[in-house]
Every structure is written in C-alpha cells, then in structure tokens.
C-alpha cells in the first residue's frame, strides 16, 4: 500500500466531535461555530473572527472591510494559491503578481517595494510551507496586509503568532491546510478597531456564507490538538532533515532570527528532475507531489512573463509525506528514501 503525500490527522476525538454534531441534528451554522471562534481567539490572541465556508469568501469579506477601491492593484506572490488570483479578479481588482526570493520562495521586501512603485495598494501575504516571511520589513513599507496563514498556523516571530501582524488574516480549513475542517476558513482581526469594521459585515453575512457546525466541530478538535500534533511533526521533520543532508537535494530553511516556523509537510528542492524522483519514490511505495501545483504561476505561467524564481521552484520542488498518522516505521522508511534520492 502506497504512503499518500497528505493525510488529515483525524483520530477518535475528531470522529466523536463530528458524530456528536450529527446525532444532535445540528449540522448548519450554530453552537460549534461559536466554540470554534472562541478557541481561535484564545489560540491566536486575536480580537475577533468569523468562520466562513471557503478561503475565497474570507478574502472577499476582508476586501469589503478594507474598502479598497475597485480596480486597485493587489500584490500577490506568484507561488500563492491560485484561488487568490481568481477571487481578486471576480471582486474587480487587478492582481499584481510578483516573483519570490531565490532562498526562501517567499516574498522579499525589495520586490514588494518595487510592486508598490507599480501601483500596488494592498499585499496578500501567503506564508508558504509553514515558514515565516520577513514580515516586519514588509510592515515597514506601510501597505495594508492580509495574511494567509493556511499553511503556517502556529508559526511565530518574536513570540508573536503569524495571523496577528496583518489587518486581517485568513486561516484556511481546507483538506490540506495546517488545520482542517474538511473545508472553510477563519477570517481574523487581531485589533479591536479592525474587528469592529469586519463585524459589521459578518453580522450581515448570509447563512450560506457561514461555516456549518459539522465542519466547525472537526476544526475545533484539530485546533485543540494542534500542539500535540505539531510536536510529532517536528520530531519527524528533524529525522527527515538529517536524511536529506546525506544526499544531493536540500530543503528550505527558516530565515531570520527569532522566527519559529511550523511544520507543513516536507518540501524538497530537487537538483534533478521531478519525474525521476517521483518514479524512485513510487518504487518504494511513497507518493510525492509538486509543492506549487495549485499556485498562480502553475495556472498562469505563460501569461506572467519573467518570474524566473517562481517558475524554477514550480518545476523542482516536491512534498514528501509528513504527518502524525505516519508512525515511526513509515517515517523511517521515508527518511531512508530521502537520503538516497537520485
């Protein structure tokens, strides 16, 4: 049996929580959503939050609350998820897609500053692969920022969590996000003044926009169990990191002092072709996946022109399985493969 690249960590607690919701016959928006929001506020230390049915909806509500004029240029990473690009166009904004740092695959302050000169008036900051961007330098530019911490829940800078730096922050709850509810998103406001504005819009939200209890009940347990699961992921990551150093490939490293990333899968920067590495891994019953298959550059490569770093990462980055359900035996098997990749 092959080891899948991703697998949601759903144990007895998560199952019991969802089953209780089903037994109570209250699967639409209700009490579980309220409990989830309370847990989110406590975990991240934000002033307010609203649970919505998708990350795209969360971005739409954030844009409404910011009241950015239609037609404005919004800066996004070429490696950000494609749904951001689609959502911006649907809402009447112009995505200003920019390249990433060759070291981190994240946005650099220098590139963002150039985009500001081209008319960028808002930054959507995607913290990819669990890593912490150079967020303080980005804040110093003076642009309003919407954080996307869907892959980096729990990461921090100077003991301050990602999700509390921007005006608003999106925590995706999709299947392959750090915390899953089987779908949905949390839109957070770290400061009271921003929550007051967002709350006016969320209070008027259609019931069809609000996250159902059945998703909230799963996400609630995931959030409560996050620290326990993260510790298991960190132990696996250390084993993998030692293994990858024995071969010719490498992984990403967190840049900057006092930045603590979270563990989101195990990304490998390949020095050989993805196809060869994939075939080798499959012979060992291990499935891998392109890191940026769902990114903007993956869908718009021909239209976006000279974004060399993003295009390079698109072709030569692979996720290897890393999640708590793997267990020690399978993790050791993957570590051995990482050390011997062609």
Please give the structural blueprint.
Elements: H1 12-23, H2 31-44, E1 48-52, H3 55-66, E2 73-77, H4 82-90, E3 94-98, H5 109-117, E4 120-126, H6 135-141, E5 145-148, E6 156-157, E7 160-161, E8 168-172, E9 185-189, H7 192-203, H8 213-224, H9 226-244, E10 250-251, E11 259-260, E12 266-269, H10 274-283, E13 289-290, H11 296-304, H12 308-316, E14 317-320, H13 327-339
Parallel strand pairs: 2-3, 2-4, 4-5, 5-8
Antiparallel strand pairs: 1-9, 6-7, 6-11, 8-9, 10-12, 12-14, 13-14
Q: Can you describe what's shown?
A:
With 342 residues, this protein is α/β, with parallel strands linked by helices. It has 2 domains: 12-224, Type I PLP-dependent aspartate aminotransferase-like (Major domain) (Aspartate Aminotransferase, domain 2, 3-Layer(aba) Sandwich), CATH 3.40.640; 226-339, Aspartate Aminotransferase, domain 1 (Alpha-Beta Complex), CATH 3.90.1150. Helices cover 43% and strands 16% of the residues. The protein contains 13 helices and 14 strands. The chain has a 7-stranded mixed β-sheet with strand order 1-9-8-5-4-2-3, sandwiched between helices. A 4-stranded antiparallel β-sheet has the order 10-12-14-13. Strands 7-6-11 form a 3-stranded antiparallel β-sheet, with no helix packed on it. α4 (82-90) links the parallel β2 (73-77) and β3 (94-98). The longest helix is centred in the last third of the chain and has 19 residues, at 226-244. The chain starts with 11 loop residues before the first helix and ends with a helix. The model has no long low-confidence stretch (mean pLDDT 94).
């Amino acid at each position: 049996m092959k080891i899948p690249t991703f697998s949601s960590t759903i144990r007895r607690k998560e199952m019991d929580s969802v089953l209780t919701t089903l037994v109570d016959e209250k699967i639409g928006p209700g009490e579980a959503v309220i409990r989830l929001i309370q847990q989110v506020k406590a975990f991240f230390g934000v002033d307010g939050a609203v649970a919505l049915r998708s990350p795209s909806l969360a971005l739409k509500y954030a844009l409404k609350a910011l009241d950015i004029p239609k037609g404005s240029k919004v800066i996004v990473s070429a490696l950000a998820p494609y749904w951001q690009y689609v959502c911006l166009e649907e809402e009447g904004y112009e995505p200003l897609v920019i390249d990433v740092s060759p070291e981190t695959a994240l946005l650099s302050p220098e590139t963002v500053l150039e985009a500001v000169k081209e008319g960028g008036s808002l930054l959507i900051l995607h913290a990819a692969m669990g890593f912490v961007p150079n967020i303080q330098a980005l804040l110093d530019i003076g642009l309003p920022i919407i954080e996307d911490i869907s892959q980096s829940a729990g990461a921090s800078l100077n003991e301050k969590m990602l999700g509390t730096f921007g005006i608003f922050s999106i925590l995706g709850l999709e299947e392959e996000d750090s915390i899953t509810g089987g779908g949905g998103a949390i839109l957070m406001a770290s400061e009271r003044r921003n929550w007051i504005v967002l709350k006016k819009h969320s209070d008027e939200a259609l019931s069809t926009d609000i996250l159902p209890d059945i998703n909230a009940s799963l996400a609630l347990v995931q959030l409560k169990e996050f620290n326990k699961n993260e510790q298991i992921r960190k132990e696996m990551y250390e084993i993998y990191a030692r293994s990858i150093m024995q071969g010719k490939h490498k992984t990403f490293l967190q840049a900057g002092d006092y930045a603590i990333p979270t563990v989101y899968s195990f990304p490998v920067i390949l020095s050989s072709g993805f196809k060869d590495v994939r075939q080798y891994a499959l012979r060992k019953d291990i499935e891998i996946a392109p890191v940026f298959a769902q990114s903007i550059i993956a869908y718009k490569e021909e239209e976006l022109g000279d974004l060399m770093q993003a295009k390079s990462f698109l072709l030569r980055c692979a996720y290897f399985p890393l999640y708590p359900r793997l267990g020690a035996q399978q993790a050791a098997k993957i570590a051995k493969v990482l050390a011997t990749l062609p």
